[in-house]
Amino acid sequence: MEISPVEFYDKVRPYKDVIPSQIYEEIIEFHYKKILPKKITSRPRLGKLGSTIIKPKLVNVISNWIDKNDSAVLSSNNKYKFNLIYLKSRDGFDYTTFNNKLKGQGPFVILIKVRSNKIYGGYNPIGYDGRCQWVTSSASFIFSFENDQDIQNMEIGRVIFAKKAVYEHCNAFFNFGSHLFVKEQDLFLGNPGHYDNIFTNVEISLPIEEIEVFSVIKK
């Protein structure tokens, strides 16, 4: 479950004859239809993301960013468990479903893959509670990766105006300080001054391919 569909096809499928048929069919269903297995009890290991957007080595990067450990961002960090709570291709692309999936789940990390294969994201330590207002946070951040395993050109922008760190929409998707937000079907990047500017000086929109949201639980 922690590898990509391509890796599954190339590296696991050839050995299907030695895998119990029930397990194989449930994993096929997971990779092609995003349906979690019913009978498989194993889950992604602590500190790992069951993500189809990024590779596991970027999990340490995000975990260290959460710990504000930017100077040793590539060091091992298994302090957190990440649970997938929303997947665009599985749950649909409407804000009501999105907000219902996030409500009451606590802190979360969001990953957005756009058509260029670049990846954007953000960390919300407050969580979502449907407050329909600006929410103060001094620990939230936004980030980008050039691709699913980029460790050379990754960027992080920490919040600099805590009172407008996150806007909790009642009738829209997430909004990280108007720097990173969804409008209609696209991802918008801006520079209103609420986070370190790592994106652009003018607002741009990018078509979205996939969105994943993980609740973050400290061990």
Tell me about this structure.
Pfam families: TLD. Residues 52-217 form the TLDc domain. The chain has 219 residues and is of the alpha+beta class. The protein folds into two domains: 1-42, no CATH class; 47-218, no CATH class. Helices cover 20% and strands 27% of the residues. β8 and β9 (180-183) form a beta hairpin.
Salient structural properties:
5 helices; 9-stranded antiparallel sheet; 11 strands; 20% helix; 2 domains; two-stranded antiparallel ribbon; alpha+beta; 219 residues
Helix content: 10-25%
> What overall form do the CA principal axes indicate?
globular
**How many structural domains?**
2
Rg measurement, Å: 17 Å
Distance between the termini: 21 Å
- Portion of residues in beta strands equals 25-35%
Task: Label the structural class.
Answer: alpha+beta
**Number of distinct beta strands:** 11
Mean pLDDT over the full residue set: 89
What's the layout of helices and strands?
Blueprint: H1 5-12, H2 21-33, H3 57-66, E1 80-87, H4 88-91, H5 95-102, E2 108-114, E3 119-124, E4 134-135, E5 141-145, E6 155-158, E7 166-167, E8 175-176, E9 180-183, E10 186-189, E11 204-218
Antiparallel strand pairs: 1-11, 2-3, 2-11, 3-5, 4-7, 5-6, 8-9, 9-10, 10-11
